[in-house]
Design a protein that fits this description.
Number of domains: 1
Strand content: 25-35%
Helix content: 25-40%
Order of helices and strands: HEEHEEEEHEEHEEEEE
Strand order of the largest sheet: 3-6-8-9-10-11
Shape: globular
CATH architecture: Alpha-Beta Complex
CATH topology: tt1808, chain A
Number of strands: 13
Largest sheet: 6 strands, mixed
Number of helices: 4
Structural class: alpha+beta
């Protein structure tokens, strides 16, 4: 058996290597959650909910000179690389970017999946707050509810609006000043 040289891992940034591998892998998109690679494969029900919300957010995002999408979010200094269901970011920040920081966004929306529901409810909520995402909307398909988190801090969000059952109009505050119709979720 060949021995590994003592300097084999010298100078290798494990976080960077893992994130590079995810970005350049072939096949299904994947994200990294607390160092675990999670393939992303959404059901049609999941996509229908995301599309309903995206359609309502898109016009206001354009007025604010923002883009909506599900692009890469990097959380430097952690083994996390998220792909949100919806993110709204200023067009200037998104232009030419491979990834944004959560603090570069104005709103992040995650729709739970049965296989990863605790990721969205617990891990992403905590990490998005720590990395300065100003608004985090959690759409919990299993509980048929929506919760808007705001005022991020190191220990999490300090303001919670919800959970509200599907069908309850939900106000998204500044800069959006938008009421989401959730009756068709």
């Amino acid at each position: 058996m060949t021995e590994v040289p003592s300097d084999y891992n010298a100078g290798v940034d494990a976080e960077l290597a893992l994130k590079y591998a995810i970005q350049h892998s072939k096949g299904e998109p994947a994200q990294i959650v607390e160092g675990i690679i999670e393939p992303i494969s959404a059901s049609w029900d999941h996509e229908a909910i995301a599309e309903t919300l995206r359609d309502q957010i898109r016009a206001r995002a354009r007025e604010l000179d923002c883009v909506t999408g599900s692009g890469n979010l990097d959380l430097p200094g952690s083994a996390n690389w998220f792909i949100p269901d919806i993110a709204v970011a200023p067009a200037a920040a998104a232009q030419g970017a491979d990834a944004l920081l959560p603090s570069d966004t104005l709103l992040i929306v995650e729709v739970t999946s049965a296989s990863h529901e605790d990721t969205d409810r617990v891990v992403k909520r905590r990490r998005y707050a720590q990395y300065g995402a100003p608004l985090y909307l959690l759409v919990d398909r299993q509980a048929c509810s929506l919760t808007l988190y705001s005022k991020p801090g190191e220990l999490g969000y300090t303001h919670t609006d919800g959970p509200h059952p599907y069908g309850t109009p939900l106000h998204i505050p500044a800069p959006f000043h938008l009421h989401l119709d959730t009756s068709s979720l």
